[in-house]
Amino acid sequence: MTGRFGDYGGQFVAETLVGPLEELWSTYLEARQDSAFEAELNGLLATFVGRPTPITRLRRLGIEPHGVTIWLKREDLTHTGAHKINNAIGQALLAHRLGKRRIIAETGAGQHGVAVAAACAYLGLDATIYMGRVDAERQLPNLQRMRLLGAEVRLVDQGTATLKDAVNEAIREWITHPDTTHYLLGSVVGPHPFPSIVRDFQSVIGREAREQFLAAAGQLPDAVIACVGGGSNSIGVFSGFLDDPVRLIGVQAAGDGSGSLGRHAAPLLYGEPGVLQGMRTYLLQDDDGQVLLTHSIAPGLDYPGAGPEHSHLKDSGRVEYLTASDDEALDAFQELARSEGIVPALESSHAVAAALRVAPTFARGSQLLVNLSGRGDKDLTSAMAAIGQRKEQTGGAA
Amino acid sequence: MERLEKTFARASERGETVLVAYLTAGYPALAETGPLIEAVCSAGADIIELGVPFSDPLGDGPLIQETTHAALERGVTAAAVLEIVAGARENGVDVPIMLMGYCNPFLRYGLEQLYADAAAAGADGFIVPDLPAHEADDWLAAARTHDLGQVFFSAPGSSPERLRATAERSRGFLYALAANGVTGIREELDPGIDAYLSRVGEATGSTLPVCVGFGISRPRHITALRGRAAGVIVGSALLRAIGDEQTPAGRILAASKLIGELKAACR
């Protein structure tokens, strides 16, 4: 059946949205066959987004002390600072094709919101963006950017006031205005066809990375590592290597590392299959099927589900899923900045942390590719506060 | 299914509109749900739609969200809701009781077990707002096995093909969403509702009853829909009437008064 990844995916939505989802899918399939659409998208990716992004070989991290070479795919160098813009610009073009001039979106870390606001400003569309109040407080620079770019930002107080609650409110708004509004979903989650469309728009990461890696290193990487919240940057980069003999490693947020309910955001490790926000996927839920609270220092990972394709890749064993904790992410955040001159997003720091942890398990001379999904400017206030707090707790030893 | 069929047949003979009253199970307290069911039935409700709370009720507006949140805080589970149904049957409530809830808690319970337990408790079927007809094979199989209703929705924008496919799969009745959006009180009916209900009627033929819900809150809404639909569904207005009162007795009175007024418009 269309829109399924093994047992996952589907279209568990209000009847009101079935028509708009069908229209979105048929419009997308047409667009993919239309060379003019492809040319316009590629033109915008080159001249607005700044693609291709380079890959960077790290000079110290990994080599010292493990003898492993780590490379980064530099999605942090895109316009607006994260991979989210690849999908935002693609879906904004689709909205044009659908004849819809009003865009709604959800955002967690704010990177998707900024990307949507920028794409809408450039293409002349109206943007309304839902953001949890907690996330807005920890990502203030992005809140300011969205408003500067002309988007209306609606703060959400429901639930934990984070990403899941922002998605709920965006879906409610979409149900209310399905004829005039396009919901520009920011990850490979939600009802069919979003997981497929967003994956396709993000697959540019994997195509570029594979080609660049072969050209630079003369071989494929031994492993590709990426963080997984909803899972769009990881699906984007993994899609380039699914048919290759390359280990693929997705990294979820272990939060405070205790493994306690409500203190992490790792449904692919600790969740069970369920239905939320239009899709069947691994979900953090209690014995009664109520969705559990989550925690991660990285707002973009602070989500109780993951894209249905990830659930399938987990069950099929094609991708290994690990976790990294808040502390490990903060360590990686600092290490990458100090030793390589790159400030990663806290989300991406989870992938870097996992790469450093698995590096000793690879033979010396191995080559690891990490997708650096975004840059860390947005996180400076919250990351520095957390680092300061750790120093206080450990008496300055950290 | 039999209780549902008889309810619609009897209303049709009398020339009445069926009144469906929505209550969130466990709101404002588990002990009050049974008495509220009995009160609204005595006041004229023909069918009870009993909400099973979910943490993320995507199809619901602020009023119902608040009530389901309150019910969850009191620990109300699907099993507790089935006990409420069984208790109502023991107390002589004989109107159909439909369980309304979102997919995940039901899936977690296990569909086959849930439908068996629901039938044993005396429930008459399920209304699942995030389950479109094309995703419902397993649910329909369980509904057929246990002779329960399985209600699907039509939306103002549903295509004729979609309306026909949905009507073909619905068991008991079709829930026609009166408007786009989430549940909540609306002042006026959508001006396009007549044309929309005509399209729905063409798709369902004369065999499947259609109940209209979302925004129905006043007698004049029901009067305007007379002859256009077999039934109407009232939720947020009833919950607001209940929520505005400070005592259990006050809540029973307010619910009975509102249902009495709405039922008068059904006759």
3D architecture notes:
The complex is a heterodimer of chains A (398) and B (267). With 398 residues, chain A is of the alpha/beta class. Chain A is 45% helix and 19% strand. Chain A contains 15 helices and 15 strands. In chain A, the strands form three sheets. A six-stranded mixed sheet of chain A has the order 3-5-15-10-11-14, with helices on both faces. In chain A, strands 1-2-13-12 form a four-stranded antiparallel sheet. A four-stranded parallel sheet of chain A has the order 8-7-6-9, sandwiched between helices. In chain A, helix 5 packs parallel to helix 7 (140-148) and helix 9 packs across helix 10 (232-238). The mean pLDDT of chain A is 96. Chain B is α/β, with parallel strands linked by helices. Helices cover 51% and strands 13% of the residues of chain B. The radius of gyration of chain B is 17 Å and the shape is globular. The mean pLDDT of chain B is 97. Chain A binds chain B through residues 10-16, 18-20, 158-159, 164, 168, 171-172, 175-179, 274-278, 283, 285, 287-291, and chain B through 54-56, 58-59, 61, 65, 72, 77-78, 102-109, 129-132, 134-135, 152-159, 162, 166, 177, 180-182.
Structural class of chain A: alpha/beta
Number of helices of chain A: 15
Specify the oligomeric state.
Answer: heterodimer
Total helical elements of chain B: 12
Largest sheet of chain A: 6 strands, mixed
Q: Give the helix/strand class of chain B.
A: alpha/beta
Percentage of β-strand residues of chain A: 15-25%
Shape of chain A: globular
Overall 3D form of chain B: globular
- Average pLDDT of chain A works out at 96
How confident is the prediction overall: mean pLDDT of chain B? Answer: 97
Q: Helix share of residues of chain B?
A: 40-55%
Please give the share of residues in helix of chain A: 40-55%
Number of strands of chain B: 9
If interface size is counted as residues with C-beta under 8 Å from the partner's C-beta, which chains form the largest one? A-B, 33 and 38 residues
Order of SSEs of chain B? HEHEHHEHHEHEEHEHEHEHH
- The poorly predicted ranges of chain A are none
Cα-based radius of gyration of chain B, to the nearest Å = 17 Å
| Ends distance of chain A | 52 Å
